[in-house]
Amino acid sequence: RSTPKPSSAASDVYKRQVNVRSAPIDRDEKIIFRIHEGLKVDILQSQPGWFEIILLDGKKGWIEHQSLLRL
User: Of 21, 31, 35, 49, which has fewest CB within 10 angstroms of its CB?
Assistant: First the structure.
């Protein structure tokens, strides 16, 4: 299964609530903030299964790729 390529285009969060992590791994990596359904984010880069995102206010972090709907 391939991971979509990063893009400067906006993406839309489609899960009700998503934990944004400090690193692209789902273990003990710190949850740095949460985002909610409908929020638009920009993708900075990707790693298998993960996107690094940035919000309009400059906050950055990693979320699982299935949390986003590409616009």
Answer: 31
Alpha-carbon distance 48 to 37, whole Å? 22
CA 22 to CA 70: how far, in whole Å? 22
Q: Is 0.85 topped by the overall pTM?
A: no
According to DSSP, the residues that pair with 20 across neighbouring strands are 33
The Cα–Cα gap between 13 and 27 comes to 22
- Distance (Å, whole) CA 36 – CA 48: 22
Contact 3, 65 (CB under 8 A): yes
Mean pLDDT calculated for residue range 35-46: 91
Residue matched to tokens 């400059």:
58
